[in-house]
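Sequence only, no structure available. Ideas?
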Amino acid sequence: MKLIDVLRQECVVAGAQFADKAEAICEVAAIAKRSPILAGVSEQNILTSLQDRESLGSTGFGGGIAIPHCRLKSVKEFVVGIITAPQGVGFEALDGEPVTLLVFIIAPELQSSRHMKLLSAISQTLLIPGATEELLKATSSEAVFESFLRHTRADIDVSEQTAKSLINVFVADENVFREVLEKLTGLETSSLVIVNTEQSTAYLAKMPLFADFWRDKSSDFGMLIMVVLQKALVNEAVRRIETVTGDLDKCSGVMVTAQDIFYSAGDM
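Reply:
I predicted one. Tokens follow.
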């Protein structure tokens, strides 16, 4: 997928003015509605979805830039638009500064991975030195459109990721910890991280009201092993852990959880 394929020229506006964030979000919905792709979606539905997203936290991420976005069930293709507002508008941005450039995304509900990568691609484009300044100087929607595409980089990688899982191994015994770690390092993983932890009982034991309950049980040792690996290797990881601990259902001092990962990038 290329940004040129999802940036809708009819959804690009130069030199807008807004009294406040609420008016800006309303205008985003109205401009998004210009796209034929959203012909079957009401402007009110778009606006409500954008407002719901903003209620979770402002999409103004600093530097005068905001990327308002939402996902809709009835949408099959991405709609990306750009609005420049050189005079700025208060947007509750992370840095507290007015927003002068809004790039919005209306996304299909079931394409979360592509949505996330699109967000990343847009933010990377806007962080290119001089890109935002050039966009704000443009006096026509055509100039804004062309300027943005000129700064975009390679195609967005939308290839499906190999299914991965996250395994958390909580260990309260130092000897067991070392053995389990040794077993897990033999697996092919994307990441393996060790985090110092402490059981809640260790805190409660220090509180006068609860001290007597865990007088003999509290432990100063606590480690969490976090492993990202291919989903197909989860059973093998558990098998290796049980060669150290025995049946985990009958084990005390070690707890293992495993969960599917929606998105994973990078390495440790």
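The first helix runs from residue 3 to 6.
Hope that gets you unstuck.
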